Amino acid sequence: MHFYTYDGTFEGLLTVVFEAFERKAWPTDIEQEHLAQPSMFGEHIAVVTDEEKAGRVWVGLQKKLSAGALQSLYHTYLWEQPGFEQTIFNYVKLAFGSERSIEGNFAAPCVLQVQQAAKQVHREKHRMEAFVRFQKTADDLFYATISPDFNVLPLVIQHFEKRYADQRWAIYDTRRRYGAFYDLQAVSLVQLELPAHQRHAALATEAKHADEDGYQHLWQVYFDHVNIPERKNPKLHLRHVPRRYWKYLSEKQPRILRK
User: Fold this and answer.
1) Fewest CB atoms within 10 Å of the CB: 6, 89, 99, 242?
2) pTM for the full model?
3) DUF4130 domain: which residues (predicted)?
4) Structure confidence at residue 60 (pLDDT)
5) Alpha helices of 80-207 — where are they, by DSSP H?
């Protein structure tokens, strides 16, 4: 039994793959080092991330897999569900050990799991792009919080960078406690440890731009006027806009009364 730990990065996981192949010691479990529990059985191998080793694994995969399959593998990493590391390792091991493409081999559990995970992550990515709502702060920064089921923040950055290229903005993932900040030149990922009571709270009144409540009110008035009561279909609405995303939408918040 071989128990591997790594730092939680994608490069770290690829380094685990390299080390396992070099040692010919196939993992029975792979966990992030800060989540790992001590085990009395088997060999514990703590892997230090090595970008050169990770790069060699990735180059090797590029020779065995299509661009779509490589993307699915990365999406599975962002999926973050229990056992995803082992699924990725099994997929990579199968790919390296097969002369033919494994991408359509859904009889292999790891291939089917990667496809299903990638679909779930892709769906969550599009929902975040559609449902994120920004608030304007007093210093002219457009700020939004998200708490997606999967770690899709790296996947949505390009969408917002193109759509809001002329505005400073920041998106903070309250579940994973990091964010993306765009300064009109480039996007950088930032760690931000907010107190627990602030992670899901709306902007404080003093932090809002003077016109922000007015913008919110105008949007709510617009939504109310274009909404046709006779055509309401709650079941269809929930299918396209699940209730867990309502917290992002201005039209789902209590109505702002203007004096």
Assistant:
1) 99
2) 0.84
3) 84-251
4) 98
5) 84-96, 109-131, 153-163
